[in-house]
C-alpha cells in the first residue's frame, strides 16, 4: 500500500502545485502577489485578501519586529523572513540598515550561533559533515545550486570571540552572505553559506540533546586536512571561478588554509585579510584626524592571533611603502599576547608573531624581572599612539590601560575590535570617560555607551567590496595589494566634517562596497591583466547590482 501522506503525494504528483511558488523564498511575494498573478498562478484562497505593496510589507514587518523584546527574537524573526521571502528581507534591510545590521550580523549573530539549534527550522546553504567524507563531489554535483559565485565557509571553531560553536557556526556564513547581497548587491541565488561540520570540542554542545550538529569531538590533523582538500576540489569542479571566503576558523587552521589555497582559487580569509584592511583603514583615517604621522609612532597589537598577525603584516607593508626599511617598519609594531610582550626566542607562539617579535637584545632589560612585560608595562615603555585589541578578552583595556595611552598622546587611537560586545576589550563609553573624551575610538561591534563619534571598525566595511570587485574584474586570485588598496579607498571616504567618525555610517555600506570594489578592479587590471569594460569599471560595478524588487515576469512563468 502507498504510505505517502496525501499532501506530499499531491505535491509530487502535481508539479504545478501553486504552493511551490509560495515556498520558494526567491519567488515568493506573500501578500504582494497581484490579482492577476493570483488568477494566473492559482493563488486565490492560499493568501489573505489584502493585496499589499512591498513598501506596505516593509512597514508591517518593521512594526512587528520592533514589538519583540530581545535582539535574539528579532534575529529569529528576520531569519524566518529571509527563508520565506528573500526579496522582502533585503528590501527591509536596505531601508532600515542601521537598525537591522546589528541583528542579522554582529553582535546578535553571535548569540544566534550559540543558540542555533533552538531556532533551526529550514535548510539554508550546505552542511557538509565529516561522515560524508568521500562523497562531497557527488553531493555538490547533485544539488540544484547552479551559478554559485560567492561561498562563505566556516568550520565553526572560532565564532567571533565565542569559541567553538560546532554546527551553530552556520549563523556566521549566513550573516556574511546576507551582507554580500545587502551591501555589494550580489544576487542571493548566487551565494552559498557552507558549514563544514568536523565535530566540536564544546562539551556543552556535545551533551545538549537539542544540538543539531555531528556529535563528535573535532577531527584534526591529516584527516581534517584531507576533508578540507576534498571540499575545495569539489567546489572547484562544481563552481569553477567561484570566490571562497574562509571565515571564523581557529587561528592555526585559518592561517594554514589561507596559505594552502590562496594561489589555487580566488579565496581569502576575512578574519586575517579583511580585518587587516579594515584596521589599516581605521588607522589611516585616525592618523589624519589626530594630525600625526604614523611612521613616527608605535602601534601596539593586543592579541596577536589570526586577526592581529594579519593586521601586523598589512601595517608593515604600509610603513615600507612610506619609505621605512623592513626592520624599521617591524620595529614600529609591538605585540602583546597571553604571555606578555612577544619577544624573539622567548614566547613566539605562532609563525605570524615572528614579524613583530621584539629582538631579544632590545628586550633584555625588560626581561630583567624574568617575565615578558604585560600590556600596561609595554604601553608605559613604548608609548604607542595606537592600541588595537583582537584578543577576545573582555575588559582588557581597563582604566589604567586607557589612562596610560592618554598620558603620552593628545589623541590616542584605541580600537577594541573583539566581537561581540561581551568579548570586547573595552566599551566605547569607558574609553571616552577614561581618556577624558580625547581618544579616537573604533569598536568591532556597534558601540554601547559611546556617543555618536564612535566608529564600528568591522570587516563588513571591506569583505563585500572585495568580493564584488573580484567578481566584476574576473580576478582569479585575491592579492595582498587588493587589501592594501581597499584600505586606502575606505579611508578616503572619511568625512572631513569635523566629526571623529573614521568611516561613513552603516547606512552607506552599499556606497562603501562600490568604492572598495573599484579599488579591487584597478588592482586586478594593474597586476592581473584584467580588462576594464569599454564604459569603465564603475559602470560594470553598478550594472552588477541585484536590487530587492519583486519580479514582474511571473505571469509568463510556465
Ligand atoms: N572587528 C573585526 O572586524 C574583527 C575581525 C576579526 C576578528 N575580530 C575579533 O578578534 C578576536 C580574535 O580573533 P582571531 O581570529 O584573531 O582569533 P585568534 O584565536 O586567532 O587570536 C586571539 C589571540 O588572542 C590571544 N589571547 C588570548 N587571551 C589573551 C590574553 N589574556 N591576553 C593577550 N592575548 C590573549 C590568543 O593567544 C590569540 O593569539 C575575536 O574576538 C574576533 O571576534 C574582530
Ligand atoms: O563577524 C564579525 O563581526 C567580524 C569578524 O569577522 C569576527 O570574526 O569578529
Ligand atoms: Mg570573522
From TrEMBL:
Coiled coil: none annotated. This is Oxaloacetate-decarboxylating malate dehydrogenase. InterPro entries: Aminoacid_DH-like_N_sf, Malic_N_dom, Malic_N_dom_sf, Malic_NAD-bd, Malic_OxRdtase, NAD(P)-bd_dom_sf. It comes from the Bacteria. A divalent metal cation binds at residues 247-248, 271. (S)-malate binds at residues 158, 419, 458. Divalent metal cations. Prefers magnesium or manganese. The active site is at residues 105, 176. GO terms for biological process: malate metabolic process. It is an enzyme of class 1 (oxidoreductase). Residues 82-262 form the Malic enzyme N-terminal domain. Gene3D superfamilies: Malic enzyme, N-terminal domain (3.40.50.10380), NAD(P)-binding Rossmann-like Domain (3.40.50.720). GO terms for molecular function: malic enzyme activity; metal ion binding; NAD binding; oxidoreductase activity, acting on the CH-OH group of donors, NAD or NADP as acceptor.
